[in-house]
Amino acid sequence: MALIPLQLPPGIMKNGTEYEQSNRWRDASLIRWHNGSMRPVGGFTTRVSSAFDSAPRGLHAWRDNSDGTQIAAGTYNKLFYVSASGTVADITPVGFSAGNEDAAVNTAYGGSLFNTGFYGLTRPNTGVFQEATTWSLDNWGEYLVGCTSDDGKLYEWQLDSAAKAAVIANAPVSNIGLVVTEERFLFALGAGGNPRKVQWCDKENNTSWTPAATNEAGDIELQTSGQIMAAVRVRGRTLIVTDTDAHLATYQGPPFVFGFERVGTATGLIARKAIAAVDEGAFWLGAKAFYVFDGSAAKELKCEVSDYVFGDINYNQITKAYAVHNSSFGEIWWFYPSTDSLENNKYVSYDYRENHWEVGDIDRTCGVDLGVYDNPIWSDASGNLFDHEQDPAVGHGAYTPFAESGPISLGAGDQVMKVTSLIPDEGTQGDVTVTFKTRFYPNGAETSFGPYSTANPTSVRFTGRQVRIRIDAARSADWRAGIMRIEAKAGGKR
Question: Does this model's pTM top 0.85?
Fold first, then answer.
């Protein structure tokens, strides 16, 4: 008898054929690999139930000057404030122009690119032309500032829950978003309706926008063929990403104030909120690839689940995609709508510390990292706010963690192996079950055996040339799974 370790590298491999996924994990949900072991992601509890009347498309948390904690959330038609105690106040600006709850593809006359399609026929679907409305939210000191690409105005809210957010005086209109730089400049993105223009106010004065010898206000039109999508702060500078490339703004002081450098080509962002900044730089989702800015250049990020993700996305609703940083585990999560779903119902995550990918199911529309609060706060399409990454024992709602491997050859793969025993390596003894799925040939019929408990060494009885393993876990348990072993002996070649 020989002991065969079922030792698979961390993360998910979903590219290529099933044979290419040999000796790898090929599917999972709500599972992460961290510090050498498989475990469930943290559980979640409801912070505020039905806080908003529609799906939030922007979430922001910050501390005021009195160290009080604040949350702001924007939907397609409103802006809300949520206190630390869970009190919700509508702070929608007077005169705010509501946007679009869902994205729509315009195939009517004049709704597509010139000279596409044939006369008398419906225009082809060449992309999303009416975006789902998302919010760009940030801090101006202790005050909240915000903008949507549909409304285009820059707003400020000064912490009075009885008052509405108000238009920032003298600020440009018809913008697509905003960001506040480390030096306390407010950037208006796509300023004045020019999709390539960045305009900024005077330093520490967001009502002074006209350049003069006595201030540092200014503007620039980026040398790009694309349109500005979003901007984030990275390492004391500001990264601006278009739908085709990436540019870095660095403060230089008068007379030019900011220097702009293109740091990436063919690195476009597909959705305005599908980018997240980390200390190391930024990560974002493109039309057919993931990208990273490492502090000096933007480049494509090698992804072992790209075939699956980009084949699974509902591109008609992709403008709802949202990226969040989960700093406790060094992860970037992207929530996205799959195939026929109107709302974000799946995720793909990248562990940038340990360099592997994970996928799964969860219905989240936006979120913020921990820091202001003790846990990451994420929201769903029903307007609920959840505290995430708690003890997994609090549960994962209706979702159940699992992981399933690709084919694993038994022995050299040329002989039938008879497996008689499972020797588990599971930390909590009994919260995990294992199912074996065997085949005699790569394209042959698959037979399942189990599930088997992982509490103790367990007698099993099955034969095959290759086996897949599936791990199912209790919804409310904090377990760890290491390297399990099976006891097997060689049989014949048939």
Answer: yes
